[in-house]
Amino acid sequence: MQELPDCLYEGNQPTLITPLSPTPNHSLYLSNLDDHHFLRFSIKYLYLFQKSISPLTLKDSLSRVLVDFYPFAGRIRVSDEGSKLEVDCNGEGAVFAEAFMDITCQDFVQLSPKPNKSWRKLLFKVQAQSFLDIPPLVIQVTYLRCGGMILCTAINHCLCDGIGTSQFLHAWAHATTSQAHLPTRPFHSRHVLDPRNPPRVTHSHPGFTRTTTVDKSSTFDISKYLQSQPLAPATLTFNQSHLLRLKKTCAPSLKCTTFEALAANTWRSWAQSLDLPMTMLVKLLFSVNMRKRLTPELPQGYYGNGFVLACAESKVQDLVNGNIYHAVKSIQEAKSRITDEYVRSTIDLLEDKTVKTDVSCSLVISQWAKLGLEELDLGGGKPMYMGPLTSDIYCLFLPVASDNDAIRVQMSLPEEVVKRLEYCMVKFLDGKDNEDENSRAC
């Protein structure tokens, strides 16, 4: 795997793109689902397009779409209360950089088949003292020697979730290719998700813990261990045939969705490849869209984080013994708990700022497939490739640009663990247990 060459910037880069017409100037309240520490990062996408669009066209359409998505032209700040974040909708502008890299689309695919540190060159680095000082929307378009382009975006997770990022990107594409109004306009008010007064935590929330409490029963913090190691990305693509075979390992006794089967297989393989103690309790945290689970449902176009993390729990021995049935059942039970009252209880729980997401013994899965991200067309055709700019210990289920029915699983682990994970993940395709070092680990 070779590093990408440096980007060449011309003139004064980057520029600030402001909304084309005046927008509301106010402080935008962020809900407790937007404003907690687990989401204080930017969602970073990388798109590879075979045909480029001129920077003037892209900046013009961005300026127009920012009229509706005006919080992206604002700045995040701490509210006067001192404990909550809010958006200062001041119209300052989104960051837009344009560059050139002396490679072709094919060079990119062949040089760097997986995310690596040199990919970071493709997104302009904003000099900032903290995450809060980085503008909510940063974009870089890098033009390639072959006439293609790479689009990288950094979208502040406190403003929206994966569904929201897709909604924005498709709105930008719509503005690039059409003068018509948006089919769905964003609904920015978060007050439909206000906490109750007084807060009422009516459910247990095993996906969260308090920073003031120490769990003495857990002696091994998986997250801290992984963060302390040199990591390498693991990437596996499952086509429709693979996914059907995986689902059949639960049939006929248990019907399940593709997500449930793949998440169960990933969780189980993760625990096996890390060689965790059999008696250890491990968790799977995964996002569940709750827009239609509330009573009443969230307004159409709701623009904020509209998900909660479901939490499945299992002893390692129950997870890894037998097939994926136990893991699937645990995931289904976790999903079924996401009701209107559960969501309200979560919002009230997060009023306590000592509460944080418990990642110490958890695998976190984020679903990017099925959001339409790979369908983005800015006027030159759909992308050759779509994925994250970086790879992390958190697991992503990604779309495959060339196959709408396939899903790419990606996460970073220590190099020696990556090989075991990749083996364990595809072991269901092999009817026999191969007697080698990897099979004994799985």
UniProtKB/TrEMBL annotation:
Assigned keywords, A-Z: Transferase
GO terms assigned for molecular function: acyltransferase activity, transferring groups other than amino-acyl groups
Source superkingdom: Eukaryota
UniProt cross-references to Pfam families, sorted A to Z: Transferase
Family annotation (InterPro entries): CAT-like_dom_sf, Plant_Fungal_Acyltransferase
Similarity section: Belongs to the plant acyltransferase family.
Listed name of the protein: Transferase
